[in-house]
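Hi V.,

Quick status before I head out on leave. The structure for the redesign project is tokenized and pasted below; the design run finished overnight.
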């Protein structure tokens, strides 16, 4: 069969029904291939891959309604971690063991002598210390997280409320790792992996074993309350609970705070703070 004959057969087949054999030229000869043969020649279709099974993730029921904590909040009470302590008094009544009680008393004596030791400078204050800051804060609530941005040094606390567990390999940080859940309109927060540091600016120390449990709620339309329980087996003889309150200021805004441009109490090479250097 000539090439013209084959081409004509192909053209006729494109115009007609697929019933007759298609003639294909192979070299100078020809091979007749029917529909059944073509069907057998098609590659076998691979079965569709089943979608990978999704790993079940334990999550708390997704909440859509939340309490209204909008606005700017400022702490009420003294600058000590325990707000019951009178303003101007440096001693907090923490349940310290003998070792850390001696350290705390040494700090108080040095301060009374006008030679306090510095411990923070422009580093983050972290938790729990930032929760007694004289600078204001806000609270932003979403379905999966609660953010607490604080004006002082622009620190931000993130509380994960999506039901996650604390990672096994979490690194200690200034703010720690916080997970939480809602009990009605009370936000319950547990914070772990907190770097060792001080609880307040008065020299009260905590170790890297510190954990913090909080129950945060609105007690009235203008007052936010945070019941804080600190547990530190290296420092305390028992858990220590204090309750701090924050007043709502509707006409305030969070301002920019740059510690490096506002460092009024620098720490020198010997550890003395600017408070002592000015005397």
């Amino acid at each position: 069969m000539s090439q013209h004959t084959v081409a004509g057969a192909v053209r006729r087949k494109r115009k007609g029904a697929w019933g007759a054999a298609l003639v294909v030229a192979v070299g100078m000869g020809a091979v007749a291939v029917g529909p059944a043969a073509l069907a057998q020649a098609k590659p076998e279709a691979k079965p569709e891959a089943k979608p990978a099974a999704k790993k079940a993730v334990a999550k708390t029921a997704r909440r859509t309604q939340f309490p209204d904590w909008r606005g700017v909040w400022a702490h009420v009470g003294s600058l000590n971690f325990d707000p019951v302590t009178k303003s101007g008094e440096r001693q907090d009544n923490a349940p310290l063991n003998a070792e850390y009680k001696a350290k705390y008393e040494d700090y108080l004596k040095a301060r009374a002598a006008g030679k306090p030791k510095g411990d923070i400078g422009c580093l983050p204050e972290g938790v729990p210390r930032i929760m007694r800051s004289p600078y204001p804060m806000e609270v932003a609530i979403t379905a999966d997280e609660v953010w607490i941005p604080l004006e002082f040094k622009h620190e931000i606390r993130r509380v994960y409320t999506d039901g996650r567990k604390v990672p096994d390999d979490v690194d200690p940080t200034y703010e720690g790792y916080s997970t939480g859940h809602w009990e009605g309109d009370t936000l319950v927060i547990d914070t772990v992996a907190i770097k060792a540091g001080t609880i307040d600016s008065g020299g009260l120390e905590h170790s890297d074993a510190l954990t913090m449990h909080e129950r945060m709620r609105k007690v009235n339309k203008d007052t936010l309350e945070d019941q804080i329980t600190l547990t530190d087996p290296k420092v305390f003889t028992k858990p220590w609970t204090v309750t701090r309150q924050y007043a709502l200021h509707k006409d305030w805004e969070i301002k920019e705070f740059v510690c490096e441009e506002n460092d009024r109490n620098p720490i020198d090479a010997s550890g003395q703070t600017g408070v002592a250097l000015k005397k």
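Above is the designed sequence. The CA atoms of residues 3 and 27 lie 10 Å apart.

G. will cover questions while I'm gone.

Best,
W.
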